[in-house]
Amino acid sequence: MSVLLDPSILFFLFGVIAGLLRSNLEIPPAISRFLSLYLLMSLGLKGGFALAHSGFSASVSASLAAALLLAVGVPLLGLPLLRRLCGPFDAAALAATYGSVSAVTFITATQYLETRGLAFGGHMAAAMAMMESPAILLAVLMANRLRRSAAGLQANGSLTLATPPGGGLGKLLHESFTDGAQLLLLGAMLIGLLTGEAGKAAMQPFSADLFKGMLAFFLLDMGLMTARKLPALRGQPPALILYALLAPLVHAALAFGLARLLGLPAGDTSLLMVLAASASYIAVPAVLREAVPEASPSLYLGMSLGLTLPLNLFVGIPLYVSVAHRFAS
């Protein structure tokens, strides 16, 4: 229960309560955007500084390979089950949402590890960036296949890329791979890697001293947003509710097994489990609204933000870290 005594988590809980009470408390969108960018910039710098200190190794390469494998495997494994629980377009959207990652969950997990003095590789921030885009690509592919099949245009079972509603496929993929938040994360990591210890000392007041307070402020906003999405879950099939609660645990178990197979250190294993267990509620839903308009935003946002995010913050992070540090090498 020590996680509940963390100020950042308590601010998230406070935001949920305030939202459920229908308070007029709100964080202006511009400030929310700034907080998100600040956290990603700080995370990237920390990762770059850590990489400058440790250098690249076989373990780094193995972690990144595992992240990419999970980014592709999780949505592909989840799709057949989701097709049994909801319509095909909703299934594609949910598979992509749960195949991608939550930056806030990851950042909270790194703070959890740092608070307890547990080491992890700075390259895991790059792993997070790598795991976001494959799910978006798969969602576009799945939706296009469904449209062509429905129109009788698919021949010999081949998968042909069609132009999704709202813009060309190239435009959507360009946006997913060049998203400003991702570029900021990777750019900050590169700057941290190039500047090393001198850069770390210079940026300490910005990237370290302010980080905890900024994270608490941002999680307050996430709590308010979670409360707004909870009503969308009313009337949803119980099986989908169970999926939102159980799938993260299954995905974390897959990540743990893969990390053990590759011999990853405990800190990296715990963060890989966090990434696999999380679900996107910002980047992927923004693309899905345009690429898969047939899917219901209230469903994939309600499940990922209303159920999976709180589950990971309150239960998942301490569970994944505990399992990784008890059993991982």
TrEMBL record:
Residues in the signal sequence: none
Q: What is this protein called?
A: Sodium-dependent bicarbonate transport family permease
UniProt keyword Transmembrane helix, yes or no: yes
Which keywords does this chain's UniProt record carry?
Membrane, Transmembrane, Transmembrane helix
Pfam families the UniProt entry points to: Sbt_1
Q: Where are the transmembrane segments?
A: 6-25, 37-56, 62-82, 94-113, 119-141, 210-227, 239-259, 271-288, 300-321
Organism for this UniProt entry: Uliginosibacterium paludis
**InterPro entries cross-referenced by the UniProt entry:** Sbt_1
PANTHER family xref list: SLR1512 PROTEIN (PTHR40400:SF1)
